[in-house]
Each structure stands twice: as C-alpha cells, then as structure tokens.
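Narrative summary of target 7.
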Amino acid sequence: MPKSPEQCEEIRTQMRNKILQKSILYFARNGFSGTKIGDLAKHIGIGQGTIYIYFESKDKLFQEIYKMINSEKDIRQIKLLAKLPIPAKYKIHKLTKAVLRQLEEDDNFAGMIVLNTEILFEQDENNSAYGTTYQSELYKYMTKIIEQGQKEGSVVLGNALKLTDYYWGVVYLYALKKLFTTKYEIINSEDLERTILK
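Modeled conformation, tokenized:
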C-alpha cells in the first residue's frame, strides 16, 4: 500500500532530524575541515547521496547545525536567566547546575558545547569566521549576567568578556573530556563558579 503524502513528509522530517542530530557529534569530534561527507554518511548509516537530498553542501549542513545549536533550549535558558529580576549570583548558580547536569547526562549537549566553540574559530573559504567569539549568544548573555554581578559585588572585577571566556573555557574543556576520554572526573559547581564568583 502506498504511503500518504503526510507519511512521506514525516519520513523526510525524521531523516533530516537524524542527519542533523548525528552530525553534531561528528562535527564536534572532527571539526568542519576534518569532516568528509562520505565518512559522515557512514557514521550515520546512510548513503552519501541521502545527505545531499536534504542539504546541498557540507556548508549548508553546518549552517543548519549552527542555527540549531543557537536556538536550543539551553541557549534560551541563559537568555531567560539574563532577564530575570534576581541577583546575578543566583543566575550563575542556576546556570552552572544546569550546565553540569547536562554535561554529565547528554553527549549531544557536550557535542553542542564543543561545536559551538569550534564554530567561533572555524573559517570558511573566504577566510571570514562564521561568527566571532563575542557575537556568540552564550557569550552575549553570560556577559550581561557577569556585568550585573559586578555591580552587585558578587562577581570578581575585570573584563566581563574575559571572565565569560574563563567560565565557558572550563565548560568546553570538560565537554571535550566527555567526548574524547572514557574516564574523567566532572567538576563540581564550586570549581566552575570559582572562575567568576567572589
């Protein structure tokens, strides 16, 4: 019995989502330059041509992943935290607990952290970055929280962007450990918050 148009569309949506989800970790582990579409297709368990049905090039696939990463609930959470009328110290506690829990439980989250950081430094063929570090959504909203904390006296003084670098740099390091090592000890909240809180 032939499939209905709705069933066909559902199958296409599922395949597109599968390609995107599996590509996050693959790009995170191999980088943009180190990712070959043929190898990625084998990793996913599909034919190379299938990827091109959904994405016309590796660049287009990578751009879709970038959009997905920057619209994920984790990014929305930090945006919401930045706007809440509560002290910055509590915002940082909430963010830290959520980040560490996700790192521990979800390989895809670790992949998104690694990939988001790598995207900031990857360059396309025109030698222009996809985005600079300080245009990143994570950096933008974390910097706002840090600046609020500095005004309140709970965050160490100094360049807010550098402090944001320290915080996300530690998160990035542990995301790498999760993806590339089998045995590592996850840091606790106090260790991570030590990079920015007094």
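The CA atoms of residues 82 and 144 lie 7 Å apart.
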